Amino acid sequence: MIVDLLKIFVTVIQKKGFTKAAEILHLSQPAVSLHIQNLENEFGMKLINRSSKQVEPTQAGHILYDRALKILDLYENAKQEIHLLQNTVSGSLKIGASYTIGEYILPNILAEFSFQYPQVDIEVMIDNTEEVANFVRLRQLDAGFVEGEIDSNEFVMESYLQDEMIFIAPPNHPLAFKKKIRMDDLHDQIWILRENGSGTRAYNNHVIDQYQLRVKKSYVFSSSQGVKEAVAAGLGIGCLSKWVVQKELKDNSLVRLKVGGVPFTREFSIILRKDPYITKATEIFLQRVMDSSP
């Protein structure tokens, strides 16, 4: 079926190689090469430039890649609409989420959705905001759930939840004994930060820059769990989503620093590509997310 050939072709282009594409598609590398050769024979033109390091689409390959993405979207939409004639929602749902959203908010929504629509195959990728946006851009995800703003005109972006950010410290930190803290009290502190590309890191950088805070030293961790553990161990202070630290605040392994002044909030957003091809499963799931927002 031509759709299968197009899926193979798109995967080879996106993964920039036959071997990686074969692993994802659960095919042998020679089989993938043969399918691409058959596709080239059908069009009568070379579609991919092969080298020892990676593959790149030719001019004809670029044209086919763009059209193939649309054809595959249309095919998936047709499948969904046909299944709806039987009052069923099936197909696949591929979503990406930043760590805070993916680990603390989406699981309950996904559990309810999968119970109601058991025929939908769900794949979830959890990574930092920058990577989630990149995978949506490459059409490897149907939708992304991210923290903060995405500096791109390539997406449709819709805010669905306001997130409260709080400053945290270990119970024995000098600032933990103050009833109220001014921003000036945060000068010359050791900060525990997330990695670049993280929405949490972007927010921390924004706060530090906005209030011109002097940072004595900083340590970088690639997960919020790492930040929490480092702060609890006494390495420094941090600023994380309230969703992330609820358990630790209850068991007093971390304390909230009561910083006065303006509230510290950011937006959780849904990002989609700027095209009309959204599967029914994705449409229903996104509506479920919006309905569940407080």
TrEMBL record:
PANTHER family found in the cross-reference section: HTH-TYPE TRANSCRIPTIONAL REGULATOR, HTH-TYPE TRANSCRIPTIONAL REGULATOR CYSL
Cited CDD domains: PBP2_CysL_like
HTH lysR-type domain location: 1-58
Family, per entry: Belongs to the LysR transcriptional regulatory family.
Record's protein name: DNA-binding transcriptional LysR family regulator
Pfam families from the UniProt entry: HTH_1 (PF00126), LysR_substrate (PF03466)
Keyword annotations of the record: DNA-binding, Transcription, Transcription regulation
GO molecular function: DNA binding
